Amino acid sequence: MSAGEKAKAKAEQGVGKAVRKAAHAMGNETTAAKGSALEARGKAREAKEKSKDTFKH
Predict the structure, then answer these.
(1) How far apart are CA 49 and CA 31, in angstroms?
(2) pTM of the predicted protein model
(3) DSSP, residue by residue, the chain
(4) Which of these, 2, 32, 30, 4, lies nearest to 17 by C-alpha position?
(5) To bridge 23 with a disulfide, which of 32, 36, 53, 57 should be the other Cys (CB 3.0-4.6 Å)?
(6) CA angle 38, 40, 43 (to 5 degrees)
(7) CA-to-CA dists, residue 42 to 5, 15, 30, angstroms
(8) What is the distance of C-alpha 51 from the center of its chain?
(9) Which tens digit of pLDDT belongs to each residue from 3-55?
(10) How many other CB atoms are there within 10 angstroms of residue 35's CB atom?
């Protein structure tokens, strides 16, 4: 996994989690769902990069 892609995946997860929690606390469920989707996209990116590493070795 390249360092840049790994950082991007972790950043998406962190931002998504922060947005989701803040929006949920304020009662804005639409924005909370968007934050959750961003977090899931970060997790998917991380899984993709890990699978690429598995096949390289």
Answers:
(1) 27
(2) 0.82
(3) --HHHHHHHHHHHHHHHHHHHHHHHHT-HHHHHHHHHHHHHHHHHHHHHHHHHHHH-
(4) 32
(5) 32
(6) 115
(7) 10, 9, 19
(8) 16
(9) 888 899 999 999 999 999 999 999 999 999 999 999 999 999 999 988 887 77
(10) 21
Phi and psi, residue 34, nearest 5°: -65, -40
Which burial class, exposed, middle or buried, applies to 6 when counting CB atoms under 10 A from its CB (0-12, 13-18, 19+)? middle
Q: Taking 80 as the threshold, does the pLDDT of residue 57 lie above it?
A: no
User: Are the CB atoms for 13 and 43 separated by under 8 Å?
Assistant: yes
